[in-house]
Amino acid sequence: MLVSRMVSPVLGAAIDAPAPLASSVQVAPGVIRPGETADEADMARRPTGIDAEFVDKAGIVGQTQLRASQLALDRSSNPDVKAFARKMLDDQDRMTAELRKLGARKGLPVQAKMLVDPAVTALRARTGHAFDIGYVAIAGPAAHESAIKLYEAEARDGRDPQLRAFAAAALPTLNAHLSAARALAKSVDAAH
C-alpha cells in the first residue's frame, strides 16, 4: 500500500487554497442568508498577503502534525511510529511556539482555533497497523513535502525578513523530517 502519497484533506486544503467562507455560499431565493460567523469575521479582518498566508498555513500544518503525533504516541504500539511521533511533537511544538511569537510581533497571530480535520478524527477510530498506516498518511512524506514547499515559498518570496529567515531556518528540520517520514513509511508498509 502506498501510504506516502495520501495527504490529510484539511492539510492539503490549507496548503493549496483558501476555503470559501460559509456566509459566501449561495442560497436559494427566499431563504434568509445567515450572518457572518464570529470566526469568519475574524478571518475577514486578518491581514492578507504572502506573509499572512504563510503564518496561517504553517499554523494549520503545525496543529495537524501535533494532533496526529499526540494520537500516535497514545495509541500506536509500533516503536518506530512512537519515536517519529515524539520527534514531530518536540520539533513542531518548538517551531509553532516560535511562529506564534514572531506572528504576534508582526500582527499576524497564528490561528488558535483549528478546523476539525476529518483525517485526524478518522485516525481516532483506527487501531493497530491500520492506525499506523493512517498516521503515516497524515504525518508522512506527502505532508512533509507540502510543508517544505510552503516554507520554501516563504523563504524565497516572503516580504517580511524575519518570517523569511524563520522559514529558511526551519527547512533543514523539515527536510530531516521528510527523510524520517520516508523511512517510517517503508517500515510501516513492511510491517504488514
Q: State the end-to-end CA separation.
A: 10 Å
Helical content stands at over 70%
Shape: elongated
CATH names the topology as: Ferritin
Counted beta strands: 0
The H-and-E topology, N to C, reads as HHHHHHHH
Sheet with the most strands, sense and barrel status: none
CATH architecture: Up-down Bundle
CATH superfamily: Ferritin, core subunit, four-helix bundle
Task: Assess the beta-strand content as a share of residues.
Answer: under 5%
CATH class categorisation: Mainly Alpha
Domain unit count: 1
Q: Name the average pLDDT.
A: 83
Structural account:
This protein has 192 residues and is mainly α. It has a single domain, classed as Ferritin, core subunit, four-helix bundle (Ferritin), CATH 1.20.1260.10. 70% of the residues lie in helices and 0% in strands. The chain has eight helices and no strands. Helix 5 packs antiparallel against helix 6 and helix 7 packs antiparallel against helix 8. The longest helix has 30 residues. The relative contact order is 0.18.
Compose a concise summary of this entry.
The protein is mainly alpha-helical and 192 residues long.
Write out key terms for the chains shown.
192 residues; mainly alpha; Ferritin; 70% helix; Ferritin-like; DUF305 domain-containing protein; DUF4142
Task: Describe the SSE topology.
Layout: H1 9-16, H2 38-45, H3 50-75, H4 79-105, H5 118-124, H6 128-139, H7 141-157, H8 161-190
Helix pairs in contact: 1-3, 3-4, 3-6, 3-7, 4-8, 5-6, 6-7, 6-8, 7-8
